[in-house]
Amino acid sequence: DAMVIQNPRYQVTQFGKPVTLSCSQTLNHNVMYWYQQKSSQAPKLLFHYYDKDFNNEADTPDNFQSRRPNTSFCFLDIRSPGLGDAAMYLCATSKGPGSNTEAFFGQGTRLTVV
Amino acid sequence: EDQVTQSPEALRLQEGESSSLNCSYTVSGLRGLFWYRQDPGKGPEFLFTLYSAGEEKEKERLKATLTKKESFLHITAPKPEDSATYLCAVQENDYKLSFGAGTTVTVRA
Fold first, then answer.
1. How far is C-alpha A49 from the chain's CA centre?
2. What share of chain A is helix, strand, coil (3-state, %, to 5)?
3. In a mutagenesis test of the A interface, which of B97, B103, B106 is the best target, namely the one with the most A β-carbons within 10 Å?
4. How many CB atoms lie within 10 A of CB A104?
5. From the candidates A44, A53, A101, which should be mutated to test the interface with B, based on the most B CB atoms within 10 A?
6. For the residues of A50-103, what is the DSSP string, one character each?
């Protein structure tokens, strides 16, 4: 019954070693978001897609990239993780135009950098 | 400049002690305002959407209201299971979704 699925739930990576987090959705939503959330802080928007249109936040480091190969899947690539990139990464989706525009979140991926 | 500001940062309540959380926002072109509940180590869980000033939504002990500049989440007669961080988010015309820092509510039995 899960609607937004993130894999893995926990990821440990080495300093500087590329890592990819994945998100899939069964809602057929147009919009997909990636957020970074550090302890006791607000989720920080990294980027979002409206269909295939990519929208990068101005302060998102170049170290973070994203791919959306189709409606259902979206990936977050961290090219060279640093210790400061340790966080919870949240994927969310929303419908797009029309009513019921709320976003639904996955359970997150907790990234540890060693 | 923060677009979404939540207060207070933390709220400790006795079971049954009603209270309100505030979310103020400064975006133009508001598409919707959302309230979420987040438990430790989990993703935010959707609670309510509010689209226009004057709108109200209720779910169990929670009631959300919206004005042109702020929203309130009222918790009536809370129980320990209502302990969580409550997040407010606003969605703009480009579908960008921006969050406040949240209010952490602790309800003691």
1. 11
2. 5, 50, 45
3. B97
4. 19
5. A101
6. ETTEEEE-TTS-TTEEEE--SSSEEEEEESS--GGG-EEEEEEEE--SSS---E
Q: In terms of Cα–Cα distance, which of A113, A110, A109, A100 is closest to A28?
A: A100
CB contact at 8 A, A81 and A17:
yes
| Interchain contact, B46 vs A103, CB within 8 Å | yes
**Alpha-carbon distance A22 to B55, whole Å?**
36
Percent of chain B with pLDDT over 90: 80
pLDDT at residue B3, as a whole number = 87
A112 bridge partner residues: A12
Token duo for residue A78: 């961290």
pLDDT value at residue B91: 86
Residues 6+ apart with CB under 8 A from B37: B44, B45, B47, B84, B85, B86, B87
How far lies A13's CA from each of A8, A23, A39, A40, A109, in Å? Answer: 12, 18, 19, 22, 12
pLDDT at residue A63, rounded to an integer: 95
Closest residue by Cα to residue A44 from B97, B35, B70: B97
Peptide bond connecting A69 to the previous residue in cis, omega within 30 degrees of 0: no
* Tokens describing residue A41: 């802080």
* Residues A101, B43: C-beta atoms closer than 8 Å: no
